[in-house]
């Protein structure tokens, strides 16, 4: 019996509340996790979990020793990571959860360069728009647009995420000219369901942000679907520039009222403060921050072409 592997399986199941999730985190099958837990239970001659068809919860003895086991695993992983770092070799696995807006069209080429520098590092990336707790889900780092909710989580902002209202040139020809944001109240819009304000937008007029209710015709959890909807002459949509800038620059999409910039967000890296893979996380973040500006290159292009207001440079 490998006591460390069995203890690691125990900690993963305890934190995720699931044998399946623990298996996904460790890159093994559910049966392997079950076997390791069983070996550990046989060794201590007591059950670590109360199991049912719907849930897995710690037994009394599991509760008693979980924190010590978790601390041992974290210290071991941290020590192993530091030893690898001391030889200037980054190795092991880094589990990443990433929003599609950044993953698609942007992260792939950065990852290629990063892995050329650290070829012994294995990367496991899940691309999804869900806002998750990296500790509960077993991820080392999460890239998302909104701030973390857990007190034990750390965040670092990578860049501003600006948004635009846009549509296809043909759709724009078939509607009344839009001179002011208030006119949008009467038009059906495509909107991302993950924004905190699902039926409102905030736009800058003068020096103040104005809040306005909008008429949502298509609500989606996918900004890429909304982009394709707009490209197909479906209507006006609200899109982050990181998924729409290429289509705006080649005039497949036209920005509406760029002189009234929308309230922006930021792409953040979120990770546990006491992560066992902290040195790997820092290497990745330092690499990305050296190549990404607060006002990203795609926004600089849009500003130069007057598709995006200069005022966004003042946004935090």
From TrEMBL:
This is LysR family transcriptional regulator. Pfam families: HTH_1 (PF00126), LysR_substrate (PF03466). Belongs to the LysR transcriptional regulatory family. Keywords: DNA-binding, Transcription, Transcription regulation. CDD domains: PBP2_CrgA_like. Residues 1-59 form the HTH lysR-type domain. One of its GO terms (molecular function) is DNA-binding transcription factor activity. InterPro entries: LysR-type_TF_proteobact-type (IPR058163), LysR_HTH_N (IPR000847), LysR_subst-bd (IPR005119), WH-like_DNA-bd_sf (IPR036388), WH_DNA-bd_sf (IPR036390). It comes from Acinetobacter sichuanensis. It comes from the Bacteria.
């Amino acid at each position: 019996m490998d006591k460390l592997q069995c203890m690691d399986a125990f900690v993963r199941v305890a934190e995720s509340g699931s044998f399946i999730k623990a298996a996904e985190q460790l890159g093994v099958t559910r049966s392997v996790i079950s076997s390791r837990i069983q070996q550990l239970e046989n060794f201590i001659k007591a059950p670590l979990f109360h199991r049912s068809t719907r849930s897995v919860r710690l037994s009394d003895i599991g509760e008693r020793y979980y924190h010590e086991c978790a601390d041992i695993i974290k210290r071991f992983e941290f020590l192993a990571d530091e030893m690898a770092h001391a030889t200037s070799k980054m190795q092991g696995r880094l589990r990443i959860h990433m929003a599609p807006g950044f993953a698609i069209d942007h992260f792939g080429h950065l990852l290629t360069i990063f892995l050329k520098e650290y070829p012994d590092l294995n990367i496991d990336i899940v691309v999804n728009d869900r806002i998750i707790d990296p500790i509960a889900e077993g991820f080392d780092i999460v890239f998302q647009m909104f701030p973390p909710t857990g007190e034990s989580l750390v965040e670092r902002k990578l860049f501003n995420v600006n948004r635009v209202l846009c549509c296809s040139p043909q759709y724009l020809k078939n509607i009344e000219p839009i001179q002011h944001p208030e006119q949008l109240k009467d038009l059906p819009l495509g909107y991302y369901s993950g924004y905190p304000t699902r039926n409102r937008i905030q736009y800058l007029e003068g020096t103040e942000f104005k809040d306005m209710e909008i008429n949502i015709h298509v609500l989606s959890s996918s900004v890429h679907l909304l982009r394709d909807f707009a490209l197909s002459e479906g209507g006006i949509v609200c899109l982050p520039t990181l998924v729409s800038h290429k289509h705006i620059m080649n005039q497949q999409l036209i920005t509406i009222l760029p002189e009234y910039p929308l309230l922006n967000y930021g792409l953040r890296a979120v990770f546990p403060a006491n992560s066992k893979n902290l040195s790997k996380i820092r290497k990745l973040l330092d690499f990305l921050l050296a190549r990404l500006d607060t006002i990203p290159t795609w926004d600089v292009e849009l500003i130069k072409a007057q598709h995006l207001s200069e005022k966004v440079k003042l946004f935090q």
